[in-house]
Amino acid sequence: MALHPFFRELRLTLGILARNPSAVIGGVIIAVMVLLAVGAPLLAPFDPVRLSLSDRLLAPGATHYFGTDELGRDIFSRVMFGARISLSIGLLVIAVAGITGALIGATSGYFGGRTDNVIMRFMDVILSFPSLILALALAAALGPSLVNAILATAFVMIPKFARLVRGEAMVVREMPYVAASRVAGAGHGFIIRRHILPNCLNSAIVLATLTLGDAILIAASLSFIGLGAQPPTPEWGAMIASGRKFLMDQWWYATFPGLFILLTVIGFNIFGDALRDVLDPRIRR
Amino acid sequence: MRILTYIIKRILAAIPVLIGVSILTFIISHAIPGDPALLIVGPKASKAAVESIRKEHGLDRPMPVQYLRYMRGLAQGDLGQSIRNHRPVTSDLADFLPATLELTMASLFLCLFIGIPLGILAAVRRNRLADHVARVISVIGVSTPVFWLGLMLLLLFYRHLGWLPGSGRLDVTSSPPIGVTGLYVIDAALAGDWALFKEVLSHLILPAFCLSYVYLAVITRIVRSSMIAVLGQDYITTAKANGLSTFRVIFKHAFKNSLIPTVTIAGLSLGELLGGAILTETIFAWPGMGKYVVDSINSLDFPAIMGFTLVASTAYVAINLCVDVLYAFLNPRIRY
User: What's the distance, CA A129 to chain centroid?
Assistant: First the structure.
C-alpha cells in the first residue's frame, strides 16, 4: 500500500526513535504525564480542591499516597491535576512563542536588509537579559496571574524560534523554486506560508520539544515566586511554594510536586535530544 | 595592537545593545503597569495626590521625553526610589550586591571545579561507565527546578543530617567580618579569623552547590563534546604516537583547545546564574539582590524590580563582552 510521503517519513522517524533507548525513556515519561493529565478527573482518588480539615497534613499512606496538605487536600490528586496545568502551560508557551517567533523570523530572513537588521537587533536585546529575570520583570509588570506568567515566559522564548526560522528562511529564499514561484506571480505572504515555514518545521519541532522543558521550569519558577498560578490552583510550582512552610516537618508536601516537575522536564529533554539526532539532517548520519 | 582594536570594536558594539536594554526596561516599567503614579502613591490616594506625583515625576509628558529623563537619571546612577523603604534603589542594590557576588562566584567556581574534570573524564572514557554517570548527572541537572533542589538540600543536610546551617550568611549570634570586599569568606580569611571563616563557609556551601548544579550540567556537556571533537584530531594522534603520556596529551594538547567553547558557555551561564540566584537566595534566605527582588515583588515595589532587572542585564552584557575579549586571547585567529 502506498503511503502518503508524510506518513512514510513519520514511520521512518518513529522507527529510528524506537531503537534509541533515551527516546523511548523520554517518550514513556511524556506519555505517562499526558495520561495523568488527560485522565486526572477519572483517575484521581480525591477532588484536588476539596477541603477536609480533619485530614490536615497526613503523611503518605495507603489512602493518601503522597499525603495531604494543610487544608487536608490529597497531594497525589493535586499533583495529577497539576500535570494538566503544567503541560498546558508548556504547550501554550511553545505555541505562542513558536508561532510569533516563526513569523518574525520568516519575515526577517525572507525580506533581509534593513527589516532583518531592525528585527534581529530587537531579538538580541531580548537575549541580553537573563531569561528568568526578564520573565520575572514582565510578569511583575503585567500582574500576578497564570495567563501573564505564560505570556511573560513566551516572550523570552520568542528569539530562539525567530533566530532558527530566520536562518532557514535565508537559505530557502535563495532556492530556484522560490524564484520560480515569484515569477509565477506568488506574493510574499504566499511564499512565506508555502515555502519558507514548511521548511523550518523539522528544526522547529526539535526546538519546541527541547524548549518545552525550559518553559515548564520558568513558569513553575514564576509560580513559586508568586507571579504565576494563584491558590488554590494545583500548579506544581505554587504547591512547592506553599509546601515550603511545612518543609521541616511535612517533607512530602513540597517534595512530590517537585519530583513531577523534574520527571516531566527530563522526559522532554531526553526525548528532544533524541529527536534532534533523528530529525536534523545535518546530524542524521 | 590589533587585539586592542578588536576590544574597542566590541565595546562600541555593546553600546546599542545596552541602549536597547534600557528602552525595553523603560517600556516594561512605564508602559505596562498602567499608571506608575498610582503605584508610587498607592491605590487609596486622592486624585489630586496622583496628579501632583504625575507632574513631579514628569509622567504627564510624552513617552520619549520621559525616556530621556529616565536615561538622564541612569547616567547619574539613579534607578529611582524604592516604594517600600523610600531609599534610592541604587544604594539598596549596592548593599545587597556583595552577597550575590559571593554566591555566584562560589557557584561558578564549583561549576568549573567539578564540571571540567567530569567533562574531560566523560570524553576520555566515552561510552564507558564514567560517561554514562556524567550524562545522568547533567540530564538531571538541566531538568531540576532550582528552588526545589534547594528545599531538598535543606531537608537532607540541615533537617536530617544537621551538617550544615539552613539560612543566611552567618549564625544569628555572629557579626560580619570587617573587611573591604564584602565577600565574607575572603574578608574572614584576610582578617585571619578562622572560626568565622569556617562559619561563613559552612553557610555558603549549600546555596552555592544548589545554584551551581544546573550550570555544572551545562559545563560538563560542553567540555565533553568539545574534548571529543579535539581528541579526534590528527595532531592528538601524532602526540600519542610520539610517546607523550596520556596526561600530557589530554591536558597540554587537547584541553587547551577545548577551552574556547567552554569559556563561551561559562560566560553565558554566569548570566543565567544571576537568574538562578533569585530562587536560591529566596530558599536559603541569602541576603542578596535576588532575595531583595523577590521581597520587592511581594510588596509591588516596581522601581526596585526594574532597577534590579537593568543592573542584572547590564552585568550580563558586560560579562559577555569580557568573554568575547577572553576569546580573542584564547584563539589568536579570531578577529573581526
Answer: 20
